[in-house]
């Protein structure tokens, strides 16, 4: 389970937005649907997920109906604010969404369609663990309107999968990708590098296997040790080594080189795609700070500058909605200074970069030094954008500090 929720202002029981919130109809609206169930908790994961022994009264077979109550509430709240817009992206995340029957996911998508509409050409993504994907499941999802699947590959090396507590075998990944592609879906695969015991050779094997799958999009994330996870405890006890920063840097450089050679372009620090059309539009909406409503326990939302987050446990979430109340646990309106910091943090990570005009005077002066250090692309800076070089992507946090101190 994830760490504690943020500290914010109390959220009203009816979920209404403050009367002075101004929502622009031309700002894209995304929908995130959180499915908090997993068969096994991976040792590195701190997402808001629950195995069957942790549900304490919540039921998977009732989850779709429970979430649809929040969807109905969301329509009511946004309609009263004059802000109904069709969803330009819908993303089923988790957890493992495909632990639910495909029919339940289809009903949830239909609920979004009925409440808000789904824009023509919208991106509709389902995350999936390889061992929960079958041709039948994928065909049902495609028939319901899903057009993209993000498959958690993580590695192709058995001992690395074991170190991460992943339950699938490397062969499951190819079966899942083939099923998704046969159904006409865009396919993304997720990789993690820097696991305990993973060598540079192991990582190269995983990259080569991921490229051989013929996917349209690859995400590669450095393993981060989160407090409270099983892996954090193992490292603290000295049972496994902590990630090696230098090795992870070598792994990132290898990934960028191999992916570029295979025709993939980076568009965010940890994401590459075969052309603009295969980028994750839903995740780009987060990085660009547009509007979205996150449905489900522990989900976060952002509309018109207001942020809120739901109660974490599925049982508490269901209880709130059964009483006709909003599941929101708290909310906040970041001030201009906080918003400016967030803009630098997020937009500096993407290929289009950050407008230099958006920076304050001190940060603009820092740009020249970052160009001289090889962290920001000089030609892009001349054109008025902060765009990270390869070295800058490796040191993205340092770039952000330099632009915000």
UniProtKB/TrEMBL annotation:
Radical SAM core domain segment(s): 23-265
Alphabetically ordered keywords of this record: 4Fe-4S, Chaperone, Cytoplasm, Heme, Iron, Iron-sulfur, Metal-binding, S-adenosyl-L-methionine
Name the InterPro entries for this protein.
Answer: Aldolase_TIM (IPR013785), Coproporphyrinogen-III_oxidase (IPR034505), Elp3/MiaA/NifB-like_rSAM (IPR006638), HemW-like (IPR004559), rSAM (IPR007197), rSAM_sf (IPR058240)
Q: Name one GO cellular component term.
A: cytoplasm
Instruction: State the Gene Ontology BP annotations.
Output: porphyrin-containing compound biosynthetic process
Q: Which GO terms describe its molecular function?
A: 4 iron, 4 sulfur cluster binding; coproporphyrinogen oxidase activity; metal ion binding
Q: Where does it mainly reside?
A: cytoplasm
Where it sits in the cell: the answer is: Cytoplasm
- Pfam families hit by this protein: Radical_SAM
- The coiled-coil regions, if any, are none
What job does the chain carry out? Probably acts as a heme chaperone, transferring heme to an unknown acceptor. Binds one molecule of heme per monomer, possibly covalently. Binds 1 [4Fe-4S] cluster. The cluster is coordinated with 3 cysteines and an exchangeable S-adenosyl-L-methionine.
Q: Say which family it is in.
A: Belongs to the anaerobic coproporphyrinogen-III oxidase family. HemW subfamily.
What protein name applies here?
Heme chaperone HemW
Q: What is the source species?
A: Microbacterium stercoris
